[in-house]
Write a structure and sequence with these properties.
2 domains, disordered N terminus, Alpha-lytic protease prodomain-like, transmembrane, 10 helices, 334 residues
Length: 334
Amino acid sequence: MTDQAAPKGESTLTVVLAGGVNLAIAIMKAVAGILTGSGALLSEAAHSVADTFTEILLLTALRRSAKPADRLHPFGYGKERYFWSLLAAVSIFASGAMFSFYEGFSTVFGEPKPQENPLIGYIVLALAFVMEGVSWLQASRQVRREAAEQKRTIWEYLRLVDDPAPKSVFLEDSAALIGLVIAFLGLFLHHVTGSAVWDGLASIMIGLLLACVAYSLGLTNLRLLIGRQADPVVVRGIREQLAAAPEIEAVVDLQTMLLGTDLILVCTRVDFDDSLGASDVERACVRIAAELHERFDDVNEVFIEPVPRTDPELRAAVLARYGDLAHRFGHPTP
């Protein structure tokens, strides 16, 4: 496992850099869109505005999720990061995608819009591409580093990541670079053909792109808010650690849940050696929990319940939850 402080600090840097870049680009695109009359440029301006709001929400998520546990929230505030990140996904769709759709359809089906000063649009798009590239490189660097640490491909990492900040910025910046290319093509084809339809189609494509990004991020945060299990590799490691304990004869059930970024709740039911006394079981529970904390930095809370492995109701509950795929995902079957 990796040190938790560094990833959190890097996530903040990634979000702050992306926010500053997006704010500057939004102003540039808006001015260029007004001067050129390009719907695609105005859609890209809305795209950057949406991304700027997203970074503000992500910064809020990073700050509020770091609050320590208290009496009302004994497991901490880690899941706040997922709530604010979900709002960020909604922001992308509401303020970015919807405006792009409106601008695109009004351009395609409305009165033709004359194009003026296309050179300004080309210059702004080129500058925006360079600036977005800087932000994308920072997000990409973090994603590649963390994926390598977990020995995963980038796509596997993005699917299983429990920190929505780097995924949000990486997908936003990737969409921004693609959107800039689409806007350039719309502006260029409008310039060459004199038809504003190309500009409108570019706006619609940008809207579809933003809708896809918003859906992906929204689905990720929805799963995390509901209470997704920990990384399957970590779950298997926890099960192996429990099964190796000399006092445990069988791991009857194992449940994990992400309480936030780098925070895992572990609840397990185990069948202890019947020859152990009550005090022996108590000491074993304390030692096993300490060993799990030491081996897995992300393990935050551990609850161990002694149960008989032959209990039919418990066996039925475990099989109903995991079925025949239990061992594949690191879960035991009693």
